Amino acid sequence: MGSLTAKAYVMNEKGVLAGEIIRVRSTNIDSATNVMEKALARAKLRFSDLDACCSTGYGRYEIPFARMNMSEISCHGLGAFMADKSIRTVIDIGGQDCKVILIDGAGNVRDFIMNDKCAAGTGRSLEILARTIGVDLKKLGDLAVKSGKPINITNKCSIFMELEVLNHLYDRKRLKHIACGIADAVAKRVAALAKAIDIENNVCITGGVSKNPGVMRQLAYHMNTSFTLLPVDPQIIGALGAACYAMQALRVEAKT
Amino acid sequence: MTKKYFGGCDVGSTTGKAVILNESGNIIASTIVPSEIDPEETSVKALEAACAKVGDLASYKDIAYLVGTGYGRNEVAFANENISEISCHAMGTFSCAPAVKTIVDIGGQDVKTISLNGDGSVLEFAMNDKCAAGTGRFFEAMSRIFRMDLDEFSSLSLKANKIIPVTAQCSVFAESEVISLLARRNPPEEVAAGIQTAVSKRCFTLLKRIGMQPLVTVTGGCAKSKGLIKALTKTIGMEVTPLPVDPQIIGALGAAVFARRHQ
Question: Is B60 in contact with B51 (CB distance < 8 Å)?
């Protein structure tokens, strides 16, 4: 249950059945029920078929059909590990926060660092700045990668970045260079956060912003590294981790 | 012999201010105009408007000595000199309220705290210009959420019986928090009181960095916010001294006081 989207993941002992992402609705319960119904329908299942559900994300305490909940840090760690066992660092860039999570060889969280105080370096900043230049958020990344010369945005606050971007628009700078500058600005904030912790290879990116090729390219550049692509939709990794925790809990119960 | 006039022009991010002093140091004209994209244009507009109020000053080019200040100070038209807004706020305050030892200057894009020496020079200062939280920009965004103009929003919190805390520090996140607090039908005045308190706490942090000494005053456009002054008084546990001059023109006044030294 994220701030902007809700994700559900359905799996059995053999692995994936279905995943679903929706834009959040008016209440967490409404969003959770809706996204789970859709995921279950894809897997040709009903709510009554669900043996165990674990919730995660900032709205995780309000899900009536979840028997347990885990922090999104644990879930992103385990989810990314289950998707690719070589992963040791997960950078999760969500709608309202950004986390760098270090995991061990079993998918457990070793250490993490988080920014949830400032919108810069989160999906929110990207959304605001895309709106400022009148480009659809989904198209911003594709436009950004067409430019090799991002404008340099010097401000660190999203509000001030907005004014800076507007000035570049008035100066009639090419839109693709501005779009690339916006992606670069978000990437710089994430890279600054990642610098504060000793990251270990392989590194993967999760969360909605991982779908923005502009931010991904600029982030790889600023961190001077390459990212491992996950075989699963990176926006659904938290839900995948939660599903793995639910299954683990069932296994423990079966043994006792 | 013709009279001499001295000018100060403060080009801020949101407004441009001009003050004209006569030879004896009295304010004979002052103006506040909205900022243009081009800082030089802002300075010309502010200066022309101020000169129009002075009978025997045909053009701002006739000002004997002109000092520019504010973020656009390098581009003030025909300025003889430019001086940082920190020094100008200190001098402007000192010239009209010499007992003040500590200033909180809340501008459109930054917040500064300044401590003063006995002669109006700057002892120490602290500044937030990295983050919009607590700046005029922040109040503008907030008043938009309440569908009010800045003036109306400024006094909204005065009616509050209780303060609903606003916890987000970031302007972007605070906006979402305030929207959901209002959507949950919390009284707007109590949410507004929470906003004013949050800003006061940020000012207090900056004040503690420079060692707050009484008297304390507030300058800049936001000094006119009655709600903020009330919250700040409570947060710092000290009276906030009102100035005898419009607090928004203090920077330009300080610049003009520096100009008058070139008699």
Answer: yes
pTM of the model: 0.83
Number of Cβ pairs < 8 A linking chain A and chain B: 37
Residues A97 and A174 in one domain: yes
Q: E-assigned strands of B107-215?
A: 111-116, 122-128
Domain range for A108 is: 85-229
Q: Please tell me the distance from the alpha carbon of residue A200 to that of residue A88, in angstroms, as a whole number.
A: 6
ipTM of predicted complex: 0.80
Please write the tens of the pLDDT for every residue from A140-171. Answer: 999 999 999 999 999 999 999 998 999 898 88
Alpha carbon distance A72, A96 (integer Å): 13
Minimum-distance CB partner of B132 among A96, A124, A159: A159
Residues B98-118 have pLDDT tens digits of: 999 999 999 888 999 999 999
Q: Do the Cβ atoms of A159 and B137 come within 8 Å?
A: yes
Whether A58 has its CB under 8 Å from any CB of chain B: the answer is no
Mean pLDDT, chain B, rounded, equals 93
Distance from CA of B130 to the nearest CA of A (A): 6
What distance in Å separates the CA atoms of residue A230 and residue A228, rounded to the nearest whole number? Answer: 6
Cβ neighbour number for residue B22 with a 10 Å cutoff:
15
Q: Which domain holds residue B182?
A: 98-242
Test mutation, B131, B139, B145, B205, chain A, max A CBs within 10 A: B131
In chain B, how many domains are there?
A: 2
